[in-house]
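Question:
Now give any protein.
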Amino acid sequence: GIVVAPTVVLVPSESLFSGGSQVVRSAAEPTLDRPAQVIATSQGLGITLLRCDELVTEPMAIAASCSPVGNETIVVPPAGRGREAPSPGTVVALDVLPGVFVHTAAGPSTVVGAPLVDAGGRIVGLTAATPQFKQPAATRGFGTPIERIWPFLKDHLPDLEPAAAPNARKPWEKVASEASRRVVTVVARPAP
């Protein structure tokens, strides 16, 4: 999941455990279990907002819209996965299907809802629940552009605003490192 506001995490709905009781672990504190409650779910987008009052992780910046075609992005791996910086790719096409874009950023193909971030570290989309196509020298994946997610976020977090574009581009290693500290993992609550 992605920390999108203080104490609020955006997660793929499929990552939740039945029974309503959720626990998250931050990348910064991977051994601490923190209780979380569902705030809202979007069935159409397959995403859920969780509130975790004990979470002390800084939120990730969110862009107003997806990066233009040709701009570079990276897929931020889930908390605890991958130690090296992800390989950047580009946004290849927008609206290949309604609300879907194509990118070449390398990432785990089975991860749904991982953030795609631009060179400023802002979320520009989420990896979609579709397979990546591997072609010689290219991997093509699908994503949901952030502008499709904003209405859901604004309905439940009305004070949340898009982050301005940065004045300077950051090295990808720094973008990946900063972003990976702003993700959490939903884990099963251990039995008492």
The chain is about 10% helix and 35% strand.
